[in-house]
Design goal:
This protein is mostly helical. It has one domain (2-6, 37-196). 74% of the residues lie in helices and 0% in strands. It has 8 helices and no strands. It is globular and about 50 Å long.
Length: 199
Amino acid sequence: MKSALKSGLLALVAAALPAVASAHPAIGEAAGFGHGFAHPMSGLDHILAMVMVGLFAFQLGGRATWLVPTTFVLVMALGGALGVAGVNVPFVETGIALSVIVLGAIVAHNVKAPTAVAMGVVGLFAIFHGHAHGAEMPDDAAGAAYAAGFMIATAVLHAAGLGLGFLIARVGERRAPFVARTAGGLAAVAGVGILAGVL
């Protein structure tokens, strides 16, 4: 039991390690793809939400395994375009924090939503995440390279969530639900801290 919990939590921590990386790579060529890739990796809120999307997709299984993360990435690109264009989206930071809380709670409770509903939920939150990425694009960054960077980074974090789901499933039918509840619950609690401004 302890080793199973340890494995799951280590995977979650490993996915969160990029949060300690610098959020602002050098200007010039690195300000395109490099800055775009670094942006989702630079905040605990983004990391936790992306990993929870992957874990949620794993829990749903079937076509949702790829449809849910793909929906997030594509809708996030739309949100990014809105941010770059300066289109106002209200409550972006609140929406991002709520995404961590809601997705963490969904994972903790192993919600078996229809794939279309799951796509709608993650798509809604993707707009907030994408807008934040787009609005913070440096003036000297190439837009397409920057967008490719944050989309690929997001996909990597989704893959980390799918990997975490795979690891959790390997701890056994009896223990896996507890480990998943713990991972989702920790994310949701962190989301509350982010919303309250203490994380």
